[in-house]
Amino acid sequence: MAEIVVVFDFDKTIVDCDSDNWVVDELGFSVLFNRLHPTMPWNTLMDKMMMELHSHGKTIDDIVQVLQMIPIHPRIIPAIKAAHALGCDLRIVSDANTFFIETILEHLKIRECFSDISSNPSYINEDGRLQILPYHDFNKFPHGCTLCPPNMCKGEIIEKIQESLGEKKRLIYLGDGSGDYCPSLRLKEQDFVMPRKNFPVWELICKDPLLIKAEIHEWSNGEELERVSLRLINKICSGQNAEFISSNCKLHFMCTFSSD
């Protein structure tokens, strides 16, 4: 198993916008979405919007076509492929939904880079419309975290990942939103957190950085995400016994950072 586990948020981290908003806006349902938004939790709202899309004749193919056009910084895919090629275990923890994420990753031809996706489950029902469920059933089994939305506590997911890995594994966590603050608090001294600069998680961390045990390394765009994440992977690799560092790993980083 890889010694380095890289955990990505999805919206505004891998893709450069919110995938929920993207689908709603591109299919012309922003007005209804904005009217309903104050009346229910986000996850419940997105399931409601999928019902509205279906009732107005929008198909799964329409949703897929829009998802395949979602904006992404040109350096994100090379960053993901490079980390995967270096033997890192890549995972996604996202408050989007599995259908949106899987569809986008498969279109970008990087689904195989990720060993696991933790997100709100979604499926196409017998009527042919997309249904979106909460990751945590907050009516039956509330997670009890005051920092996170009722449908998903990312901190709880990170703790389960940590328990499955053991003490020797190192985590790098990348995110942008307020929901990424709770998992950042759960990271250990040996880990790294990469908050997107001037986004909610960065602002929360900046209020009291001493609450974060992990090393903090900010990023602003896809180019910086690539540079910082690969530098951290190199830092972890170089700290291990030399016999465990492959010549390919060394060569890659010599080429990547020779101009820095």
By CATH reckoning, the class of the domain at 4-16 and 74-118 and 146-257 would read: Alpha Beta
Head-to-tail CA distance between termini: 31 Å
- Overall, the morphology is globular
- How many E strands? 8
CATH superfamily of the domain at 4-16 and 74-118 and 146-257: HAD superfamily/HAD-like
Contiguous runs where pLDDT drops below 50 for at least 5 residues: 241-260
Task: Give the H and E element order.
Answer: EHHHHHEHEEEHEHEHEHH
Question: Main sheet: which strands, in order across?
Answer: 3-2-1-6-7-8
Task: Let me know the largest β-sheet.
Answer: 6 strands, parallel
What would the average pLDDT be, to the nearest integer?
90
The appropriate CATH architecture of the domain at 4-16 and 74-118 and 146-257 is 3-Layer(aba) Sandwich
What is the strand content?
Answer: 15-25%
Question: What percent of the residues sit in helical stretches (DSSP H or I)?
Answer: 40-55%
Structural class: alpha/beta
Radius of gyration, Cα only, in angstroms? 19 Å
CATH fold group of the domain at 4-16 and 74-118 and 146-257: Rossmann fold
Give the number of helices. 11
Structure commentary:
This protein has a 6-stranded parallel sheet, with helices on both faces. Strands 4-5 form a two-stranded antiparallel sheet. The protein has a domain at 4-16 and 74-118 and 146-257: HAD superfamily/HAD-like (Rossmann fold, 3-Layer(aba) Sandwich). Helix 10 (222-239) crosses helix 11 (247-257). Residues 241-260 have low confidence and may be disordered. Helices cover 43% and strands 15% of the residues. The chain has helices at 19-26, 30-36, 42-55, 60-67, 76-85, 98-108, 154-165, 181-186, 200-207, 222-239, 247-257; strands at residues 4-8, 89-97, 114-120, 122-124, 130-132, 170-175, 192-195, 215-216. The protein is an alpha/beta fold and 260 residues long.
